[in-house]
Write a structure and sequence with these properties.
It is a single chain. Strands 2-3-4-5-1-6-10-9-8-7 form a 10-stranded antiparallel beta sheet. The chain has 2 domains: 10-215, no CATH class; 245-287, no CATH class. With 293 residues, the chain is α+β, with helices and mostly antiparallel strands. It is 39% helix and 27% strand. The N and C termini lie far apart (82 Å).
Length: 293
């Protein structure tokens, strides 16, 4: 039997986690394209890799948290993570259509034994639609991804997730972090986008939408309304280069260290394409490193 959470939990983050929006050819489409390209250039300068992107007739570029493409009838932009949380309001102001929008509230549970995925799923199973088989549910537990509860179908206009954000983020979020997330598509996405546009994508507005959505299935968010002055404390998303550097430090560096214990240092470095130039005679004279014979 799932243990009861300790209310209220601290809210780490609340905001838009994903948005796919389009703007028709014309003024809005042009402005959306200008904004998205500016965001792309900023993130590329921070070390994020940009690749070519081709999707449903749209052609453009994609990176970790941003995709932008154009076709004859307009421009499409996808934002996720930090970019979605910080830039969704600008995109909602100019978009003619929102085809998908994900909203999330991430809380920190003080009691490490509490599993909010299990608690949420147990509550949802009491709903008449779930009992009648009209709405599906599932619980997936794995290592190291943790536990995730799903309510609804991925293809429907509203799909719910509750998952261990600390495990999913590989420790970027503190232990006890649980994310309550609702994915909207189709007409529901457009309606939610309109509502958030009116509320300027405010964090409390997002929390309220997520809270009401989960309450529709009898699942309570273990947190209160956000107080004035509340600030999002999500960890900053690493750039592509930062992730590569961390991979080098944690995976490659230990291997290289072991190789250098049994092989010549120069041989190992040259195998990595790192060439060590021999010091010149002028350098030796300048540094006083000439060895007298």
């Amino acid at each position: 039997m799932p243990q009861s959470p300790q209310y209220p939990c601290r809210v780490i983050s609340a905001g838009v986690d994903w948005i796919t929006a389009t703007a028709r050819t014309g003024t809005n489409g042009t402005l959306v394209g200008i904004l998205a390209r500016r965001w792309r250039d900023q993130h590329e300068a921070e070390g994020n890799q940009v690749k070519a992107w081709d999707w449903q007739g749209y052609r453009g570029h994609t990176m970790d948290s941003l995709s932008i493409g154009t076709r004859d009838d307009g421009t499409i932009v996808r934002l996720s993570g930090d970019l979605a949380r910080h830039r969704s309001q600008q995109l909602l102001t100019l978009a003619d259509n929102v085809s998908r929008i994900d909203l999330q509230v991430t809380i920190q549970e003080k009691n490490q034994w509490i599993n909010h995925a299990q608690i949420g799923l147990a509550a949802a199973k009491l709903d008449r639609r779930v009992k009648a088989g009209m709405t599906g549910t599932s619980l997936i537990s794995s290592t190291p991804a943790g536990t995730t509860a799903y309510i609804g179908a991925r293809v429907s206009e509203r799909f719910y997730r509750i998952y261990d954000k600390s495990a999913e983020s590989k420790g970027a979020y503190p232990p006890g972090s649980w994310r309550f997330e609702v994915e909207y598509k189709g007409q529901r996405a457009m309606s939610v986008g309109d509502r958030l546009h009116q509320d300027k994508a405010d964090s409390e507005a997002v929390r309220g939408v997520v809270e009401q959505a989960f309450l529709d299935y009898g699942v309570e968010l273990p947190c209160l309304a956000l107080p004035p002055g509340w600030r999002d404390s999500s960890p900053r998303t690493e750039s592509t280069d930062e992730r590569r550097l961390r991979w080098l430090e944690t995976t490659i560096a230990p291997v290289i260290g072991r190789m250098m214990e049994s092989l010549d240092r120069r041989t190992v470095l040259e195998a990595l394409g790192i060439i060590i130039e021999e010091p010149t005679l002028s350098h030796e004279l300048e540094t006083g490193e000439v060895i007298q014979s």
